[in-house]
Design goal:
L-2-Hydroxyisocaproate Dehydrogenase, Chain A, domain 2; NAD; Rossmann fold; L-lactate/malate_DH; 44% helix; 2 domains; alpha/beta
């Protein structure tokens, strides 16, 4: 299997994803593109030098969009720089213009692979790429709340002093301020949240939930405010998605996919052909109300004109 991956955009996020794919030996051919040709030259050179000690023969090159016909996976990270004080929805107009410029060129090449969308606002950008590409929704996949779910697992592991491998949980809806944590579907070492808290002598479960929820929701912005962008977490999440697809692992993730006419994060099974199926999980009434509000926010700005 000759695994060909293209990354569109080689700024902080795209370049960290590229480096992570190299370290994890997740591809055999790495194609990178960027509007800033000087930056692109520097990134390619740096990656090539790093690859010498990885013990994996990977080619790293630039291509034009017209040469994307044989690419297996595209990782779409192209975006304008984040401005302090913005939310993810504020980035929509610039992201929309990039999609309208780039995606038709890619599809004209004969590309028929899978597109993994990282660019924010990821739910709306994924929907735009789905519409402009003509690909099935199974092949246009937003990273969505996958990283938020990983952040949630980490926060809970620290609060409850358990290994992250022993926590099952979901963040669904928008990758943004209206995201929804499903506390009713949280399992910690086999226990629901209330029983897990009781075993550890925690008195107020609601306070614990509220504190964790605020930390998870603010995590991306806190990181970006101090270092300019979130890079390591999303890069490792994308590499996990890439490996899952190439090796047909059929794993469960919370990813952004077509749901009730919009793109929104739900639990899915991911495999070689993309999203295999959506999982129908049962939410509490309170969670359902919040999830519907989250979807309505996405729906209100899912405009492709």
């Amino acid at each position: 299997m000759n695994r060909k991956v293209a990354i569109i955009g080689m700024g902080n996020v795209g370049s960290t994803i590229a480096y992570t794919l190299l370290l994890k030996k997740s591809c055999d051919n790495l194609i990178v593109t960027c509007r800033n040709k000087k930056l692109l030259y520097a990134q390619i050179s740096d990656l090539k030098h790093a690859s010498v000690l990885i013990n994996h023969n990977v080619s790293i090159e630039e291509r034009s969009y017209s040469e994307f016909e044989d690419i297996d996976l595209i990782i779409f990270t192209a975006a304008a720089p984040l401005i302090l004080g913005q939310n993810r929805l504020d980035m929509l107009e610039t992201s929309k213009e990039i999609v309208k410029e780039v995606i038709p060129q890619i599809m004209a090449s004969g590309f028929h692979g899978i597109i993994i969308v990282v660019t924010n606002p990821v739910d709306i950008v994924s929907y735009l790429i789905y519409k402009f590409s003509g690909l099935t929704n199974k092949k246009v996949i937003g990273t969505g709340t996958f990283l938020d779910t990983l952040r949630l697992k980490r926060e809970r592991s620290e609060v409850f002093n358990v290994d992250v491998a022993n926590i099952s949980t979901y963040v669904v809806g928008e990758h943004g301020d209206s995201q929804v944590i499903s506390w009713s579907n949280t399992i910690i070492e086999g226990d629901d949240i209330e029983k897990a808290a009781y075993k550890r002598g925690f008195q107020n479960v609601k306070d614990i939930e509220r504190n964790i929820e605020n930390k998870v929701k603010r995590a991306g912005w806190d990181i970006a405010n101090f270092k300019g962008a979130t890079t390591y977490g999303i890069a490792n999440a994308v590499a996990e998605i890439v490996d899952c697809i190439f090796y047909n692992e059929n794993k469960e993730y919370t990813l952004s996919t077509l749901d009730e006419g919009i793109y929104s994060s739900v639990p899915v099974i991911l495999g070689r052909s993309g999203i295999q199926k959506k999982l129908m999980i049962k939410y509490s009434m309170y969670e359902l109300e919040k999830l519907q509000k989250s979807k309505n926010i996405i729906r209100s700005v899912s405009d492709i004109e």
